Amino acid sequence: MTDLTRLTAAETAERIKSGEVTAVEVTEAHLARINAVDEKVNAFLHVDRQGALEAARAVDAKRAAGEKLGPLAGVPLALKDIFTTEGVPTTVGSKILEGWIPPYDATLTKRLKAADVVILGKTNMDEFAMGSSTENSAYGPTGNPWDVTRIPGGSGGGSAAALASFQAPLAIGTDTGGSIRQPAAVTATVGVKPTYGAVSRYGMVAFSSSLDQGGPCARTVLDAALLHEVIAGHDPLDSTSIDAPVPPVVEAARSGDVRGMRVGVVREFSGEGYQAGVMQRFEESVELLRELGAEVVELSCPSFTKALAAYYLIAPSECSSNLARFDAMRYGLRVGDDGTHSAEEVTALTREAGFGDEVKRRIMLGTYALSSGYYDAYYGSAQKVRTLISRDFERAFGEVDVIVSPTTPTTAFPIGERADDPMAMYLADLCTIPSNLAGNSAMSLPCGLAPEDGLPVGLQIIAPAMADERLYRVGSAVEAALQARWGHPLLEEAPSL
């Protein structure tokens, strides 16, 4: 029998639907794979073996009864540990929520279950999604399946690593400053940040509410589109949810025709700090788009150079407000509650023990930026830059259909290399942050290996808000052309674990 863990999500769903394999067989194959390799990778924080098998049995029962199955029924999925899941631990990679069992499902979790997707478990992440490497997890770093001594990206490194190590064909991530796209780039997988508000944030533990966005992660563009269609859509429980139809992403992923499209290349997404091999693969991808019939247009978006600074004022400011709820009084960790400390002291002791260094750093930075006398100079100025970035995108999309760039300036760096240099770590999100600040949609897909180190490089595609289908149209065209050139998916070149 074909190794069930190597099939795409679309192939897996079709085999289950036809009766060639059962959902239980598929689930057991992936649970066995997790058992075999995750000790090396550390992609999962919690594996819900019992829940996954129960969900798989329910799918098989539906098929046996002749009930209609959805396009992803029975397909296993790895869920980032930031979405609440009833009866299953949700830690957000933090000690402050260690052992917390949510009493309810996030809207995204509900939609996955309603679509009969089999949730294998919860994946590792930078604590509260604050990081670019998954080294900030309170439960140890995740390794990149291409080289487990290197980072798998962050904050959703666990989800990307689960895909790249064939522990799951689908995963869910969240993207605040690039945390879906950046891990996708360095693991040779596909990651999509939908338009802000397109996927409900209800039940997603908040980091930066005006930036956070859940989205699909997969090994192919079509699989990402199928998952996108399941999780997107209006949710009255989320005040930021867009009340509009989901763009036709699956149809676009199946078309893959870029003839006549205008593709923008932004001058500011290059220069100092970009690895030579990353730029080489990006330039080859731009040339490939020309060969496929697209017109390439050079653009300038001057405000993009200020995006990193604006982000690291806005995101910490919102995080300092959101994380105030972790006060040791309502849920989660409680330290010092022995009758000898005041409530304020218990809160302080709990936060000291429960929050990691990066979370503390961002809380302090955000609180300072919001404080009296500094609000206008820092947070207010950052919001003005955010407006300029949005205007640059508006002008650009007046000239082109999509923008392309490298997803990350470099390939995956060694674990620990940037641990003592937060600024170097933040630069990993240089290309991804502008889209979060503007709220538009973006995708990363593999475009080759860097010649210097043989590690994956990602191509980023950016589209206007609510034009997410353009990502899939361009992405599928590039993916098909590159795989025809290589003769196989890029992940087949990854070393075996």
From TrEMBL:
It comes from the Bacteria. Gene3D superfamilies: Amidase signature (AS) domain (3.90.1300.10). It is an enzyme of class 6 (ligase). Its EC number is 6.3.5.7. Coiled coil: none annotated. GO terms for cellular component: glutamyl-tRNA(Gln) amidotransferase complex. The active site is at K80, S155, S179. Keywords: ATP-binding, Ligase, Nucleotide-binding, Protein biosynthesis, Transferase. Heterotrimer of A, B and C subunits. Allows the formation of correctly charged Gln-tRNA(Gln) through the transamidation of misacylated Glu-tRNA(Gln) in organisms which lack glutaminyl-tRNA synthetase. The reaction takes place in the presence of glutamine and ATP through an activated gamma-phospho-Glu-tRNA(Gln). NCBIfam families: gatA (TIGR00132). This is Glutamyl-tRNA(Gln) amidotransferase subunit A. It comes from Streptomyces alkaliterrae. The gene is gatA.
